[in-house]
């Protein structure tokens, strides 16, 4: 159960509830209405899709004015949008997981200790290099065990940050740019996946990139390709 997806949990609840009513014949009132509410809850969107104008404004500001001041925010947003890497996975990325020569990053899924390899865009590579160079300028050698997402846009020693720290950075950005009030980082992943579906991208590739499937399903997808290409943000469009 712990490795099941949200949709699978809904299915388990639905089946259990039906078993109580149909097999045990328990006198549950309005059971059809309750099942309908369960189905409605399954279909509700937790995160909003960011409109194109707001999305382009967000990345334009980061690229033009804040690349060196909100570097990890920029990097985190692109990881979400281009590679659909969860925040909880981003904070676990260590220097040893990054291969800038091959433009790949190894991602650890903290739910099941699984790994996948993602292909990063040129912009993500540039931002990682900015973080690396800033760390070195402060007299700190980047070792293999250090974490990419750290304070002051530098690599971090010791234990990883909690993913909520990235939410704190986003709140500071929203305070400086109030036009993004109410926007969250995770909406970049939700927006990306929605746009991928709307663009007609193969559903298997979307599931593979987002790592949304169960372990068994994911293994089937990963047998086809161990490297997942980015859904790249086009800043010039």
Q: What this model shows, in words?
A:
It is a single chain. This protein is α+β, with helices and mostly antiparallel strands and about 240 residues long. The chain has 10 helices and 4 strands, in the order H-H-H-H-H-E-E-E-H-H-H-H-H-E. A 4-stranded mixed β-sheet has the order 1-2-3-4.
What gap, in angstroms, lies between the N and C termini?
43 Å
Widest beta sheet: strand line-up: 1-2-3-4
CATH class of the largest domain: Mainly Alpha
Structural class: alpha+beta
- Beta-strand percentage? 5-15%
Radius of gyration: 20 Å
Q: Which overall shape is indicated by the principal axes computed on the Cα atoms?
A: globular
- Number of DSSP-assigned strands: 4
Fold topology:
Blueprint: H1 6-22, H2 31-43, H3 52-64, H4 71-83, H5 87-90, E1 98-99, E2 104-109, E3 114-119, H6 122-137, H7 164-176, H8 187-198, H9 203-210, H10 215-224, E4 227-228
Helix pairs in contact: 1-2, 4-6, 4-8
What key phrases describe this protein's structure?
2 domains; single chain; hpI Integrase, Chain A; 4-stranded mixed β-sheet; globular; alpha+beta; 10 helices; 237 residues
Task: Give a short summary of the structure.
It contains ten helices and four strands, in the order αααααβββαααααβ. By secondary structure, the protein is an alpha+beta fold.
């Amino acid at each position: 159960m712990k490795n099941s997806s949200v949709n699978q949990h809904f299915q388990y609840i639905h089946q259990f509830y039906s078993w109580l009513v149909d097999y045990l014949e328990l006198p549950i009132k309005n059971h059809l209405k309750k099942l309908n509410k369960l189905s409605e809850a399954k279909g509700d969107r937790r995160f909003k899709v960011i409109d194109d104008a707001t999305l382009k404004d967000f990345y334009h500001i980061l690229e033009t004015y804040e690349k060196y001041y909100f570097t990890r925010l920029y990097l985190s947003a692109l990881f979400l949008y281009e590679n659909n890497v969860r925040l909880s996975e981003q904070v676990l990325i260590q220097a040893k997981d990054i291969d800038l020569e091959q433009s790949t990053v190894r991602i650890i899924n903290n739910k099941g200790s699984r790994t996948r390899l993602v292909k990063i865009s040129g912009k993500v590579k540039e931002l990682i290099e900015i973080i690396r160079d800033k760390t070195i300028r402060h007299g700190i050698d980047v070792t293999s065990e250090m974490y990419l997402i750290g304070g002051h846009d530098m690599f971090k020693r010791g234990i990883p940050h909690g993913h909520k720290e990235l939410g704190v950075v986003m709140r500071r950005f929203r305070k400086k740019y109030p036009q993004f009030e109410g926007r969250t980082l995770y909406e970049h992943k939700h927006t990306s996946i929605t746009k991928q579906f709307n663009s007609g991208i193969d559903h298997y590739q979307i599931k593979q990139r987002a790592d949304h499937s169960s372990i068994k399903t994911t293994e089937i997808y990963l047998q086809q390709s161990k490297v997942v290409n980015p859904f790249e943000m086009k800043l010039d469009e």
